[in-house]
C-alpha cells in the first residue's frame, strides 16, 4: 500500500470518483462527508494525506486545516484542498491555514493524481533535485519512473539515461558527445542520441527538450 488518504467531500459522486481512481493507484482510501466525520477518522486512523473540500455541511475546510495544524500528532499530515472556490484570496487563505496544495473544481483526475503524488513525495522528504516537475510531467530519478498528467510513461533504459542527464544539468546544454560517453554505450554514434531525443519528445511533448543548435540539448 502506498499510504492512507482521507477524502473529505460532501459531494458523494465526486468523492466516489476520486476514491475509485486513488484505489486503482494502490492507495488505501477513507472518506468523510462532513467535518465531524473527518475529525473522528483523524483521531482513529493513521492518515498520510487529506484531500479537503472547503464548503462542508458543518465546519468549513479552513477550520479543519487549522485544527490539524494545531494538533502535535496531526500537524505533519499534508493537506490538498479540493474546492470550487477559485478566487485568488481563497487560494491564499488555503495556503495560510496550512494547505500544501490547492486544486479547483472542475479538475481532471490525471491532474489530481499528479498533485497527490507530488505532495506525498514532498512530505516524505524526497531529496531536492531527485524529483523534477516539468509542466504536467513528474520524473523521479531514484525510482526511475516518469508520469505525464498522472499517467506512467514507459521509457527505454537509454531514453531514461538521457532524460536523467539533462535533468541533472537542468538549464545547461549537454553535448551529444557527453551524452554518448557518460550515459550511453560508447560504440553508438552521436546521431543515435537524436533518435532517442525524437522518441522522448513523442512521449513527453515536443517542447520539453530544447535543441541547442550545433551542440546538443537541454531542459529548462
UniProtKB/TrEMBL annotation:
The modification 4-aspartylphosphate is found at residue 53. InterPro entries: CheY-like_superfamily (IPR011006), OmpR/PhoB-type_DNA-bd (IPR001867), Sig_transdc_resp-reg_C-effctor (IPR016032), Sig_transdc_resp-reg_receiver (IPR001789), WalR-like (IPR039420), WH-like_DNA-bd_sf (IPR036388). The keyword Glycoprotein does not apply. Residues 4-120 form the Response regulatory domain. Keywords: DNA-binding, Phosphoprotein, Transcription, Transcription regulation, Two-component regulatory system. Residues 129-220 bind DNA. SMART domains: REC (SM00448), Trans_reg_C (SM00862). Pfam families: Response_reg, Trans_reg_C. The keyword Protease does not apply. GO terms for cellular component: cytosol; protein-DNA complex. One of its GO terms (molecular function) is phosphorelay response regulator activity. Residues 129-220 form the OmpR/PhoB-type domain. GO terms for biological process: regulation of DNA-templated transcription. This is Two-component system, OmpR family, response regulator/two-component system, OmpR family, phosphate regulon response regulator PhoB.
